[in-house]
Design goal:
single chain, about 500 residues, alpha/beta, Rossmann fold, 2 domains, ten-stranded mixed β-sheet, two-stranded antiparallel sheet
Length: about 500
């Protein structure tokens, strides 16, 4: 994917419209290629009560056949759309949503908070044996907006077709381009060009959303009313502890402190989490960061002072921190924090804990979050999709394709023809906000998220190259939960209200 100059004329816009050619099988005479699976469309009707009001809707689950600029089929793109009956498509908002990974299907957001059905789990307890339950979701966004859940290629039922290969889609820029093309195609096919339009991405969906917002504007002149970033991963450098770079350790520290507070591993633990976190944040910036940046130039006194603070805020001994040269990534932290209890904490949500495997290891062997809630989500989604929505296929719905292992992490930032090796699409988002100053951004972030810690989220927001006036377009909401904060009942209610208010404005 590249970022050429903006396409403002109708002629140039039409030139790029080949990607939403009609779903039609190849004709005789075209060059021989792999058989193209047929697109699937399963339509049903239902209702959900939200705020005591019944919302009747049409659900469409299936795939769209996407084509390249030469009209050749390249992918079946999976999606689930919910459209309110009787809604004015020129006025009613439409929300395009996806999870992250890269390589994660949209099942988590779909059944966790956004869709009309919700998986029932016991938050930090293990919901790992059936029968599993799904219920009508009174927290769904369908009272405020129509909804399109997107499964990028390699997830859900989405797959390359024809001569296309997975690597054509599996990379920062490739993914941005393909998801943008799907959105533009859906908007055209369904007459939604006048609708207020929003993106919602969770986790790696943040990197995707920053790029998609800019791509849609620069390639299709399609402007968004808003972008919602849920537990966003935006900047590879700022958000990856374990690298030989000091910045991520500073950004992770406040979440280490939050986790220690939750599991009561610290002495003289205060009752007030927020006051404790403000102290931890100040320590990370004012004391910890300077010593990391000084390296061997830090004095013994400065180092000793920081070691004492690291122990005070985490409960992990100063001796351990010293042996780790003041730097612990989230995997080592998750293992060490509760080592004396023979437990490790979760990465996706550090409130979760589970019995450890290999008590001498220096990194955790599994994230307790996934076996605690994963079976319930997979079971209820498949039951809902196949039995309720009537999706009849023998194909497996891929919840996680593990695509990150083969992912091209390089990215061509706006205004540059050269790729950088590691993506930061907060730059793309800033470009989009400058060119579309009416676009608003909502960030929803949990305190107990070791996958995308709130310190890294604050960092990218604080360093976006936009004016103070545009900074007012960014709204940040915090939750006392983890990456999927909507599993925590009080946070689920707040999440729903925050999102509804943002779109309702």
């Amino acid at each position: 994917m590249r970022f050429p100059r903006q396409l403002f004329t109708a002629a140039l816009l039409l030139a790029s419209s080949a990607v939403f050619a009609a779903d039609s099988p190849s004709t005789e005479g075209e060059k021989a290629a792999k058989p193209i699976p047929e697109a699937m469309h399963f339509v049903s009707q239902d209702m959900v009560k939200i705020g005591g009001r019944a919302i009747e809707y049409t659900a469409t689950a299936g795939t769209l056949l996407m084509k390249d600029k030469d009209g050749e089929p390249i992918a079946l793109f999976g999606y689930t759309a919910y459209v309110k009956k009787g809604g004015d498509r020129n006025k009613r908002p439409i929300l395009f949503a996806y999870n992250g990974g890269p390589g994660s299907a949209s099942m988590w957001l779909h059944m966790g908070i956004l869709g009309p059905q919700r998986t029932v789990v016991n938050d930090v307890d293990y919901t790992s044996t059936g029968p599993f339950r799904r219920v009508r979701n009174e927290f769904s966004i369908l009272d405020k907006a129509d909804l399109v859940m997107i499964d990028p290629v390699g997830t859900g039922f989405s797959q390359p077709v024809g001569d296309a290969k997975g690597e054509d889609f599996w990379g920062v820029d490739q993914d941005i381009e393909s998801v943008s093309n799907f959105i533009a195609r859906y908007v055209t096919d369904n007459g939604r060009w006048n609708s207020p339009k929003y993106l919602l991405g969770e986790s790696y969906g943040g990197i995707r959303s920053g790029g998609v917002a800019n791509y849609l504007l620069s390639h299709y002149s399609l402007s968004l009313n808003g972008v919602i970033l849920v537990s966003p991963y935006m900047d590879f450098i700022a958000g990856n502890a374990g690298l030989k770079i000091d910045l991520p350790y500073i950004n992770y520290f406040s979440t280490y402190a939050a986790t220690a507070w939750y599991h009561k591993t610290i002495e003289n633990r205060p009752d007030d989490l927020q006051a404790f976190l403000r102290d931890a944040e100040a320590f990370a910036i004012d004391d910890y960061a300077p010593v990391l940046l000084k390296g061997h130039r830090a004095t013994e006194e400065e180092r000793a002072q920081v070691l004492a603070g690291l122990q005070r805020f985490t409960g992990i001994s100063a001796d351990y921190w010293d042996k780790a040269n003041l730097r612990i990534d989230e995997g080592r932290f998750a293992k060490e924090l509760l080592r004396d209890r023979k437990m490790n904490v979760g990465r996706i949500d550090s409130r979760f804990s589970g019995e450890a495997i290999n008590h001498l290891s220096e990194s955790f062997k599994y994230d307790p979050f996934f076996p605690a809630v994963g079976p319930a989500f997979v079971a209820t989604f498949n039951d809902y999709y196949r039995e309720k929505l009537g999706v009849k296929t023998d194909r497996k719905y891929v919840t996680s394709g593990g695509l990150y292992k083969d992912w091209d992490g390089s990215h061509a930032q706006p205004g540059s023809s050269h790729k950088v090796p590691f993506a930061n699409t907060a730059v793309d988002l800033a470009y989009t906000m400058i060119q579309n100053p009416n676009m608003r951004v909502l960030v929803q972030q949990g305190y107990f998220d070791l996958a995308t810690p709130y310190g890294a989220t604050n960092y990218f927001i604080d360093h976006m190259d936009i004016s103070s006036e545009l900074q007012k377009n960014i709204q940040v909401e915090y939750y006392e939960a983890g990456h999927m904060m909507y599993l925590h009942p009080p946070s689920r209610e707040k999440f729903s209200k925050d999102l509804a208010a943002f779109i309702g404005e």
